[in-house]
Design a protein that fits this description.
Elongation Factor Tu (Ef-tu), domain 3; SH3 type barrels; six-stranded mixed beta sheet; 2 domains; 165 residues; six-stranded antiparallel beta sheet
Length: 165
Amino acid sequence: MVGQIVSLHGMDGGVRVRVESDHPQRFVPPARFRTGLPDAPLLVLRSVRAGSGDPIAEFAGVTSAEQAKRLVGADLLINETDRRALEPGEYWPDQLIGLNVRVGSSIVGVVDDLIEAPQDRLVVRCHDGSVAEVPFVQPLVPEVDLAGGWLRLDPPEGLLGPTPS
């Protein structure tokens, strides 16, 4: 995700966009974004300008507040091939979500989400029904195997509830 449409702006189809990308060129017209919305799976940026806070964007074919309202909440996505190269140990959130979580040799749950903040946290949905937030740092998450579909945790006692046997 490189951004999210957060609200309407005006009556002519403008929207406010929360930018999640550190590459400003992603929001230069005619940038293209996938949305996952059935009625607007692809948006083409027509214009963008500074607003108080979030930038204001207009997309091709969106010319009314009614049309723009249906876009609010949509994530703005790019193709994987357009992503920047990652350094070793860096991962895109969508690569982590859905990975099995191992403690030792036991699978204890699944990564349900990633909370991106100054201290990123994995949201782990455990098989016992509990949910835990685990700081995404190397001492607690010493191994990530994307091809194998899992990551290994070395959690302190009590972080995930009872330790598997």
